[in-house]
Amino acid sequence: MPTYRDEVVVLRTHKLGEADRILTLLSRRNGKIRAVAKGVRRTSSKFGSRLEPFMVADVQLFKGRNLDIVQQAESLGSYGAEIVANYDVYTTASAMVETADRLNEAEATPQQYLLLVGGLRSLARGEHSERSVLDSYLLRAMALSGWAPGLTECARCGTIGDHDYFLAQLGGVVCSTCAPAGSPRVARDTVDMLRALMAGEWETIDTAPGRTVAAASGLVAAYAQFHLERGIRSLSHLESHR
Hints:
Layout (H helix, E strand, L loop, with lengths): L2 E14 L3 E8 L4 E6 L18 E7 L5 E10 L2 H5 L2 H15 L8 H16 L4 H15 L20 E3 L4 E3 L13 H12 L2 H5 L3 H18 L5 H9 L1
Parallel strand pairs: 3-5
Antiparallel strand pairs: 1-2, 1-4, 2-3, 4-5, 6-7
Helix pairs in contact: 2-3, 2-4, 2-8, 3-4, 4-5, 4-7, 5-7
């Protein structure tokens, strides 16, 4: 069908001409979509504000040759204003949508869409620490893409146990036998924190000591940066601000 509807998250936008925008969208049913929203930069636009980054919308699109065309847009989640009002929240959300934008078509599944929407909603409402929301999102998004870190058994030999090393290049926690010489040890509560972030156990996450949160964040960032083709630019901005 030349015309179709879908639920989307706006990942990023680019100006086109004097009044239009090119949108990169993560949709619920059609993967990643690149589309043109005509006239949305005019003050008279009926749905321009619904198609800003971090917004969730129900859109009707016309299937084009290279770019689809947005015909209608109804807001499902207006998270942009709350997110851009706080720098840390904004850079956290930027890292999340940048990660989602890296997904290829095979990885851009309904589960990825729902995960991102849930993360942006949590950020906008201030339900949890923004860094913990990001860490949980990154671990889950990578797991959905087939890059889940090993957290309950050695990522190299498969031995089950409480291991004292975490190496991004080896895929997660590793036992003392598999860890290369000189590898730094990781505290048990840090590994427990990683497991909680993966499982979304927010009671555990929200009450964790600051040093544990920081240590787990460092491991998540290293793991994500290693497995993505390029570093997450927004993540470096968040780190430098902290």
